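#struct-help
A.M.: can someone run this one for me? Single chain, 411 residues.
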Amino acid sequence: MSYQRRKPKIELLSPAGDMECLQMALTYGADAVYLAGQEFGMRTASANFSNQQLAKAVQAAHAVNVPVFLTCNTLPRNEELDRLPAFLEAARDAGVDAVIVADLGVMHLVQTYAPGVEIHISTQAGIVNYAMANALYNMGAKRVVLARELSLEDIAQIRAKVPAELEIEAFVHGAMCMSFSGRCLLSSYLNNRDANRGDCSQPCRWEYAVVEKKRPNEYMEITEDRHGTYIFNSRDMCMIEHIPQLAQAGVSSIKIEGRAKSAYYVAVTTNAYRHAVDAYLEHPDRPLSPWIIQELDKISHREYSTGFYFGHEPGQVYHTGGYVRHYDVIAVCTGWENGILRLSQRNRFFRGDTADVLEPGTQPFDICLDEIYDEHMEPIASAPHATMTVFAKCEHPVKPGAILRKAREQA
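D.P.: on it. Structure tokens below:
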């Protein structure tokens, strides 16, 4: 089947830090995916894709009519520029649909070495007004990824004053940076790791205190309110309940942050936003089903907020720098036949546990693991070993690739 790029009314754009994440994005309903090569991407912590892997990733995505956008959005130094032409030619040859850039020089190099490939302007460029959006469109940009500091009203004003052909992309879920459009120097200053070249060590998540020069062992908390000291630690964004407002403001593509996140994160967020977008398109005035919202509490996350979309709201979590974790992945289904479920273990679970099953395209459902067996079909009380094969009696059919989760006991 020939590749026919999807052009949905609202594009759901999912991250892919490696091939497993890519497959989850495709399986759970992404309209498009974005990923990085081995250089010039803003997430060096993820595995990313070699030239050969990139070609395979594009082939896999195009087989299901999903476009691939390649991040090339670092701010490269002079000594890196000589490597860009070959990088861009390899991207062109792999068949990527767009290159995401933040630097005007890189934009020019894309036009020179990857002609015909769309150019998307990264949020790193800090686009906050229609004048800049129009200037970039006139220079050849097909899409602008707006700064995360904008309100819905700001976005609507930009949409009204740019050409209809210029696509507008906006982040709707995931980690937020405490610095403007991600242009932060904290990591460079404190840890010699340049955030603007994809190597952020996230010092904004650290716990800070003040020490007075003559009292070197006396640390004093920095308190902005009664909770304390994590004054730079921004909340995660979550706009799952506000797809109608985003659409009405003129957003063409909604983007999930997370190229350094797990395949499970990609599966859950893509699945939830897929259902949210489809629900809006089918019934624009109907409230979102609660289960869709609840799915996003089943991944590790910081406390959620809606960012700047509705004006200012509390943006930091002062009492901790860590994540909220309510669920653990316990297994992945590798098969189901005649009432017997075959599982590959991911975290320890026990006979009698209730598993919450995530399948693509359906509402999650519970199954009881009342009888579990090892690979020799001998009864076992628990599954303690990583990736061990476990069989379980289960009358409800479960699709291969489905993810089984278990709620944590809350203190």
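A.M.: thanks! The chain has two domains: 11-179+236-305, 327-407.
D.P.: also worth noting: Residues 327-407 form a domain with the Elongation Factor Tu (Ef-tu); domain 3 fold (CATH 2.40.30.10).
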